[in-house]
Each structure stands twice: as C-alpha cells, then as structure tokens.
Amino acid sequence: MHGETLDHAAYHRDFARHAEGLRGVIWKLERSQVFREPRDTSWQAFMAGDWHGALELLEKDREAVRTEARQNAAQGLEIRRVRVAELPIGPYLQWELHALKLLADEGFGLTVLTADQVASLETSVPLPEVVVFEDEVLYEVRYELDWTPCGARRITDPDVIGAAADEIKALYERGEPFFEFFRREVAPLRAPAV
Questions:
Q1: Count of CB atoms situated within 10 Å of the CB of 128
Q2: CA atoms lying within 13 Å on the CB side of residue 105
Q3: DSSP per-residue letters across 122-186
C-alpha cells in the first residue's frame, strides 16, 4: 500500500487543510497502550508523578474541547474514536482514558474494545493507529521507537479509504460505550505509579 510520508508538522497542516469545512465523520482507531506526549502539559505532570496536577490540567482544557465540539457540530462534522484497551490497564492508558473522558463529556463519540476482542484481526501485527476522513484521505499515524508522534503516511486511494472507514465503523459499533467502560475499569483505579 503506497502513500506519502509526512513529518509531524506537515501531517498537522495537511490534517487541518482536509478538516476545514469537512462534513461527515472522521474515524480514529488507537491501538498502542503507550504514547509519549511531550507537548502536553498534563502528560508531563503525569510522567512527573503528579496525578492530581495531571487531572487538573486536563480539566483546564474543557472549555477549548467544548468549543471544538460546538464548532464541529455547526460544521456537520463528527469525530468518532475506537480505543483498544489491554487489561489490566497500564499507567499511560489510565491517563489517556481520563483525557478521552473529557472528550466524551463534551459529545465526541468514543467506544472501547479490549485487546481480546480484536485479537482475531491481529494474527501477524497489531492494528495500526489510523485516522480516516470519509471519502478524502487516510492517515496511518507514525511514531518513533519510543512512541513519540513523528508524522503520518497519507493514503489517498479511495478503495483503501473506504475499506478502512468501514472496518473502523464496524469496530466502533461493536465497542462498549465509553462511559460504561470508564466507570467499570478506570474510575475505581488508584493513582498510577509511573
């Protein structure tokens, strides 16, 4: 499968260009259980062992997230994400699920599948980290070896885009509603040790 490799800055520029004025659904699939988020102050606090501070910093983003949700709704755009979670939940994923809860609180679509539920799709390699703009473009998000984001591979083949969107939509529909998963698996957890 061919595609154009974009560095981090080029990926974000291209993503913003495609999202401008877009109507419909952007599908996201996240599989890795660990990412590095060095530009995120909440992640930095989490990595420094300040769980309370990390959660406070997430909460400070609420108004920006709410504004984005309103703008998306006015534009006719939905962002739907499938998060694959390995159990028991590790420290990074615990932090990320709190970040995702903020998105869910403000109306972003999220469902969760456990790693066991996608095992049949991972016979040779784990599922990729993918963002699909319906009928537009697919980004296979790329990372350094330590899981620091470094860009994406952009694919514009309509057949590939359509097949990927269909697959992620099916996973989304199979997934557990985010709040149910969060209440059962995340809310009872103590602050993670990094």
A1: 15
A2: 16
A3: -SSSPPP-EEEETTTEEEEEEE-TT--EEEEEEE--HHHHHHHHHHHHHHHHHSEEHHHHIIIII
User: CA 57, 27, 173: angle at the middle one, nearest 5?
Assistant: 105
At residue 146 the predicted structure's pLDDT band, cuts being 50, 70 and 90, is very high
> What are 131's two structure tokens?
């963002």
Q: What is the pLDDT of residues 159-178, one digit of tens each?
A: 999 999 999 999 999 999 99
3-state secondary structure of 89: coil
Q: What is the DSSP string of 27-73?
A: EEEE--S----TT-HHHHHHHTT-HHHHHHHHHHTHHHHHHHHHHHH
DSSP reduced 3-state for 108:
coil
